[in-house]
Amino acid sequence: MPERFRRGFAAFSGFLEKARRRLQGAQDRVESAEKRTGRIGRRLGSFRGTGDGGSGE
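RESULT FIELD:
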């Protein structure tokens, strides 16, 4: 019985480590998307600041 428990616990521990790596990867992708979104927002803001060629605003 102790050996069976030990194997089960080792498998569970491996599952948790794999889940942690996947979550970290997802977090990294979210942070990267936030940075890209910020850069795009700043570029769009700079375009708005230059005017649109006489729309009447």
